[in-house]
Specification:
The structure is a single chain. With 329 residues, the chain is of the alpha/beta class. The chain folds into three domains: 1-70; 82-254, Rossmann fold, CATH 3.40.50.300; 257-329, Beta-grasp domain (Ubiquitin-like (UB roll)), CATH 3.10.20. It has ten helices and twelve strands. The strands form two sheets. Strands 1, 2, 3, 4, 5, 6 and 7 form a seven-stranded mixed β-sheet that branches. Strands 9-8-12-10-11 form a five-stranded mixed β-sheet. The longest helix is centred in the N-terminal third of the chain and has 25 residues, at 43-67. The two termini are 14 Å apart. The model is unreliable at 64-71 (pLDDT under 50).
């Protein structure tokens, strides 16, 4: 029996993608339970949301006991993707993140200000990207848990200090140090085979303090070391130079597309796009929307800035950034 879910259900269900805390998710599940019509076709869906809400309540009750065992260094992913910032002491990772996100990130003009991995959200157009500030790393010292944070991330932003005369050697040491943990930094457009995930990380370089004397020469020296490896940016967290270009490159680094959903007869929802990997198809979007679409999708219609105006497409149509998709079952 078909579920016959109302349009309001899909609007509320989409908010689960941006919910950060168990309490927020529980509230959304409860709202969904109040919207879903009660009949034989929705019995399994109702049971699923009731079970998920119950599990989250149990998790919230167990958390105080778990906290006594000490802090966890795991960073739960949120937003369109997670990018870890990695670099030597006093390179300015925290200052760059503060400028990109507008968050109150702790900064100071002395090394080792950052002691734990901390997530912050960077707005970009109509999505948000999670940037993770991390403790400094060098060829001599690295937190034992730090490589696992890098492996779990979607991408990495290496942050260099152009004010350090030995900055090139320092970055070379960091790359080698993480290489000992089987972490390989690759270009944003690299085709990573499945067997190399999670050890090959798409990476770009943010070389900070470009406004200091001698920084331009050090940047060229660093570029020779990294020639052909990955994208390099000259930035200044102090003056703001290069930060908007860096923001755009961080989006490109994730290799994602924004896709808007459309209910027949209504305008598309451009405020909360689905974020999918480049190379995703209409079928991938259907899976992200709801299992009913995944199982019963017949066809879709697509609108975009390249001239498609409601073109009827098949399940294997490759989606592009800012496509608008209307799914039909």
């Amino acid at each position: 029996m078909p579920a016959n879910l109302p349009p309001e259900y899909f609007e509320v269900e989409r908010t689960l993608r941006t919910a950060k805390t168990p309490r927020e998710k529980i509230e959304i599940y409860e709202k969904l339970l109040s919207i879903i019509p009660k009949h034989k076709g929705t019995e399994k869906l109702l049971a699923l949301y009731k079970t998920k809400a119950a599990k989250l309540r149990d998790e919230m009750q167990r958390r105080p006991a778990a906290a006594r065992r000490g802090p966890s260094h795991r960073v739960e992913k949120s937003g369109a993707g997670q990018i870890v910032f990695a670099g030597p002491p006093n390179a300015g990772k925290s200052k760059i993140i503060r400028e990109l996100t507008g968050a109150d990130v702790e900064t100071a003009d002395y090394p080792f200000t950052t002691r734990a991995a901390s997530p912050f959200m960077m707005p970009y157009l109509n999505i948000r990207i999670q940037l993770v500030d991390s403790p400094p790393v060098s060829a001599e010292y690295m937190e034992t848990w730090f490589p696992e944070i890098v492996k779990a991330a979607d991408a990495v932003c290496l942050t260099a200090d152009l004010g350090d005369p030995d900055g090139t050697a320092v970055m070379d040491g960091i790359i080698r140090k993480l290489g000992e943990k089987r972490i390989e930094f690759v270009a944003p457009d690299a085709d990573i085979p499945p067997e190399k995930i999670p050890f090959a990380k798409k990476t770009l370089l943010a070389a900070n303090k470009i406004d200091l004397p001698g920084a331009a020469e050090r940047f060229e020296e660093m570029s020779l070391l990294l020639e052909g490896a990955f994208t390099r940016h000259r930035v200044s967290a102090l003056s703001g130079e290069g930060l908007e270009d860096l923001r755009r490159s961080l989006f490109v680094l994730l290799g994602i597309v924004r896709v808007y959903s459309k209910i027949p007869g209504k305008k598309p929802d451009t405020d909360s796009p689905f974020t999918l990997r480049k190379g995703s198809t209409v079928m991938d979007m259907a899976r992200a929307v709801h299992k009913d679409f995944r199982e019963k999708l017949n066809y879709a219609r697509v609108w975009n800035t390249k001239g498609l105006d409601g073109l009827r497409v098949t399940r294997d149509y490759l989606l592009e950034d800012e496509d608008t998709v209307e799914l039909h079952i």
